[in-house]
Write a structure and sequence with these properties.
Structural class of chain A: alpha+beta
CATH superfamily of chain B: Molybdopterin biosynthesis MoaE subunit
Number of strands of chain A: 5
Number of helices of chain A: 2
Distance between the termini of chain A: 37 Å
CATH superfamily of chain A: Beta-grasp domain
Helix content of chain A: 10-25%
Strand content of chain A: 25-35%
CATH architecture of chain B: Alpha-Beta Complex
Oligomer: heterotetramer
Number of domains of chain A: 1
CATH class of chain B: Alpha Beta
CATH architecture of chain A: Roll
Number of helices of chain B: 3
Largest sheet of chain A: 5 strands, mixed
Strand order of the largest sheet of chain A: 2-1-5-3-4
Radius of gyration of chain B: 16 Å
Order of helices and strands of chain B: EHEEEHEEHEE
Chain lengths: 77, 147, 147, 77
């Protein structure tokens, strides 16, 4: 499955990109994160939440969506 | 009146003070309104480890953020008797002393506007994916986290 | 900063929206401020017994009112961590849709401004000897009473 | 004792004046009010508080001040 992953704020400092398409053969968000931690060494030390199709999801959620986003702590206002 | 369309809340750069004055002016034709309450977020020149914040550069997951702003808006109209509500948030750099958030609620009566405004501002801080890079005068930076 | 001098809070006629915009602008040099909260009272065109309110004519026991505004101001600075506070109230006629009360509080952090603003507005409504004559479109009148 | 009495808002509709000086020989605010009710027939039906030297006082307060004000219900803001 081809997934679009978006990175924001300080996450971009770990990934050095704001968006990418990744081939993912697993099931859960946690598996996708493991794949990303292997790719980006410094990502594991970052604090972030995961959104799937613009809704926050847990690590146990099934990856179903086309769009996954890694969201660091909010700082609106 | 509740509005079902998802609006774009974001403005490039700081929110000018005259824009706020004009926004107030536009409400003077709505003569059922008795009370307005306005919240403004202003960028602080915080000093951290002897370095002074010169600006915050805002980015956002814009589609999700606008959807969240819309949810907050709908929830506020549901909970409180409001005549109207407006929210504007900056994207890009906003210098210390400038306005980055403008929330405006109006109602026939005053008691409701205080509760509504606080509800909206707290929801924005907690739920909307906006990110802030605090840029110091020496061009180094750190990432802002809402408390 | 608390200010010991009793100020004159009253302005003749409505408070113009551009005055509010300019007042916000003047605070952009105060870079310790992170949050502003503004309350505006606007004259409603209430319909009472088929007659519509066209304006409210405000009068006040000015010396006592300014002393009360001063007490409220001092109490608010005592209770809340505020950077600054401004209060303006109209005297004379203010038409429906126009602004008759402008209360502006600022603080480094947001939580305090909500509580401070509500405290100040409720105290003004309860304690300050200001009187309002609601003038209908047919030039008859009734006297306004705060609820 | 010569006292200045100020009238505000709808009280002026009963007194037809905003201020006057009155000779008062009694002691309490309640006695001063009795004197005013005799002078202004419609005043007794009005709702008001009394301030002495800019502070609210009760009917049992002694009249000591130079300035008494009759304040109808407040309508600020």
């Amino acid at each position: 499955m081809l997934i679009t992953i978006k990175y924001f704020g300080q996450i971009v400092e770990a990934t050095q990109k704001e968006e990418e398409s990744l081939e993912f053969s697993g099931t859960l968000v946690s598996e996708l994160m493991e794949q990303l931690y292997k790719k980006y060494a410094s990502l594991e030390r970052k604090d972030f939440k995961v959104a799937q199709n613009q809704e926050l999801v847990s690590l146990e959620t099934q990856v179903s969506g086309k769009e996954i986003a890694l969201l660091p702590p909010f700082a609106g206002g | 009146m509740a509005d079902k369309k998802v609006k774009n809340v974001f403005r490039q750069g700081a929110i000018p003070s005259h824009f706020i004055g004009e926004s107030i002016y536009k409400h003077q034709t709505k003569t059922s309104i008795g009370a307005h309450n306005i919240f403004l977020g202003q960028v602080r020149a915080d000093i951290i480890d002897n370095k002074t914040v010169a600006a915050i550069e805002y980015t956002a997951y814009e589609d999700m953020a606008n959807a969240k702003f819309h949810e907050i808006r709908e929830a506020a109209f549901e909970k409180f008797e409001l005549t109207c509500m407006h929210i504007y948030h900056s994207l890009g750099p906003v210098k210390a002393g400038e306005i980055c958030l403008f929330v405006f609620v109006s109602s026939p009566r005053r008691k409701v506007v205080f509760k509504a405004l606080e509800f909206i501002v707290e929801a924005i801080k907690a739920d909307v994916p906006v990110f802030g890079k605090e840029i110091f005068e020496d061009e180094s930076h750190q990432w802002k986290v809402n408390s």
